Amino acid sequence: TDVADMIRANAASWPAVLERDDVRERPDESTWSKLEYAAHVRDVFRIYLYRLGLMLAEHDPLFPNWDQDATAVEERYNEQSPEVVSAELVADAAALADAFDTVADWGRPGRRSDGVSFTIETFAKYFIHDPIHHLWGAYFFVTCAAQAAAHVILQLAPDRPAVRMPEHHAGGFVLQVKQFHLAPQFSVVALGGLFQHGHVCLQ
């Protein structure tokens, strides 16, 4: 299914994020680190696998409440092992994707604890936003500083030379092109120095 493919593609992008040296660093006091985002996404996969199971086994089940912020604190997301989180995220994503592949009746209902009702179809559409949104955040936090620096360099350069990409090493210069595949049919290309950093930072 489309949602299963999107889950698998999303999960495949997280291990590289979790290998970064700054994986525990927070951009500011109110923003999670890359590790915290990844641990949250892992738990989202787990929670939605459980909820999907309820919808497949019962008629219009009521989902237990899940306090995401409390879980992040209680489970000490930022103290967890990046290697363990990476492996668990990929495994939990695979289990959820496989479960979506088994769905025959996408109209089966379920309810959140606040009373919001879903079918499996609307449940899937609502869910998939979360891991994609957080992967955007994790990737663009990496590129924002580089884009800002590139813009300053372009402004200060005496002759403002044209941006040139070394053929042998596309990532070896601050004015660089990076492509991030966030879903099978969607990618973002960030051109260093061509945009203000605020134009590419999505949260």
What does this structure look like?
It contains 5 helices and 4 strands; from the N terminus they run ααααββαββ. By secondary structure, the chain is mostly helical. It has a two-stranded antiparallel ribbon with strand order 1-2. It has a two-stranded antiparallel ribbon with strand order 3-4. A hairpin with a 5-residue loop joins strand 1 and strand 2 (117-119). Helix 1 runs antiparallel to helix 4, helix 1 (2-18) packs across helix 5 and helix 2 (34-57) packs parallel to helix 4 (82-101). The protein is globular, with a radius of gyration of 20 Å. The model is unreliable at 142-203 (pLDDT under 50).
Question: What key attributes describe this structure?
Answer:
two-stranded antiparallel sheet, single chain, 203 residues, mainly alpha, 5 helices
Rough outline: globular
Major sheet size, sense and barrel closure: 2 strands, antiparallel
Task: Give the uncertain stretches in residue-range form.
Answer: 142-203
Main-sheet strand order equals 1-2
Structural class: mainly alpha
Helix content class = 40-55%
Tell me the β content.
5-15%
Distance between the termini: 27 Å
Determine Rg (CA atoms, Å). Answer: 20 Å
Secondary-structure element order, as H and E? Answer: HHHHEEHEE
Average residue pLDDT: 78
How many helices? The count is: 5
How many E strands?
4
